[in-house]
């Protein structure tokens, strides 16, 4: 049973750093590796058509501690590793970045552009990384096109319906595209983002399919 769209919120990097007595730079870099893990497991291996990796909301840029620089460095290293490996190209995955903030460092903007240009062949699906997503701007841009009805409005929004939402430790949507989550199955991981492994994703898939089968048996509308 293929999952159309998966949203992952890679939370807990700072708490992982405190727990293990390591620097924020190291914690966020280790956390950045889950982008490849989720992309490989869900999209490259054919379990999902689309992965949304919610790395940053627009308000992340308001942080005043040292974590913002650690995030930038982790993004830079993570994206460069993926370019070096030709990961998206080799796996037939389209990469796309969404940044409403326009506050990303120029170097990271350039690297994300290189990733977006590296592969136009999305035979296996796409990975969308949120690097400054704003729900308000997403909705305002859709409204600015003067939709005639709700269905037209939905077509102007960035995301389709999201089937599965995954987040470490807490279910808080952090300004994500909530309009697409009306029928989402939400599953919480009992570990921080850098601790997530493939076996955790395998368990999540089994739980998701079991819960979805139960919902379909109980309510035919869930087949939609």
Characterization of the model:
The chain is of the alpha/beta class and 224 residues long. Helices cover 46% and strands 18% of the residues. A six-stranded parallel sheet has the order 3-4-2-1-5-6, sandwiched between helices. Helix 1 crosses helix 2, helix 2 (24-44) crosses helix 3 and helix 3 packs parallel to helix 5. The longest helix has 21 residues, at 24-44. The mean pLDDT is 92.
* Termini Cα gap: 14 Å
Label the CATH architecture.
Answer: 3-Layer(aba) Sandwich
Please give the share of residues in helix.
40-55%
CATH superfamily: Decaprenyl diphosphate synthase-like
**Low-pLDDT regions:** none
Question: Radius of gyration, Cα only, in angstroms?
Answer: 17 Å
Number of domains: 1
Strand order of the largest sheet: 3-4-2-1-5-6
Query: What is the CATH C-level name?
Result: Alpha Beta
Query: Number of DSSP helices?
Result: 8
Number-wise, the strands total 6
Coarse shape: globular
In the CATH scheme, what's the topology name?
Undecaprenyl pyrophosphate synthetase
Beta-strand proportion: 15-25%
**Average residue pLDDT:** 92
The major β-sheet equals: 6 strands, parallel
Give me the strand/helix succession.
Answer: EHHEHHEHEHHEEH
Structural class label: alpha/beta
């Amino acid at each position: 049973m293929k999952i159309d769209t998966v949203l992952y919120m890679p939370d807990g990097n700072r708490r992982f750093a405190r727990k293990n007595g390591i620097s924020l730079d190291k914690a966020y870099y280790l956390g950045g590796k889950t982008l490849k893990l989720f992309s490989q497991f869900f999209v490259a291996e054919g379990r999902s058509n689309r992965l949304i990796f919610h790395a940053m909301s627009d308000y992340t840029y308001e942080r005043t501690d040292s974590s913002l620089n650690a995030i930038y460095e982790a993004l830079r290293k993570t994206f460069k590793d993926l370019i070096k490996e030709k990961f998206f190209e080799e796996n037939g995955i389209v990469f796309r970045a969404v940044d409403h903030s326009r506050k990303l460092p120029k170097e990271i903007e350039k690297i994300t552009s290189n990733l977006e240009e590296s592969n136009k062949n999305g035979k296996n699906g796409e990975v969308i990384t949120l690097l400054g997503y704003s729900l308000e701007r997403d909705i305002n841009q859709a409204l600015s096109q003067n939709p005639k009805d709700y269905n037209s409005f939905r077509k102007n929004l960035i995301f389709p319906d999201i089937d599965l939402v995954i987040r470490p430790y807490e279910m808080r949507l952090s300004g994500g595209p909530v309009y697409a989550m009306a029928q989402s199955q939400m599953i919480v991981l009992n570990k921080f983002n850098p601790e997530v492994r493939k076996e955790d994703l395998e368990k999540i898939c089994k739980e998701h399919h079991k819960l979805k089968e139960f919902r379909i048996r109980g309510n035919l509308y869930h087949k939609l």
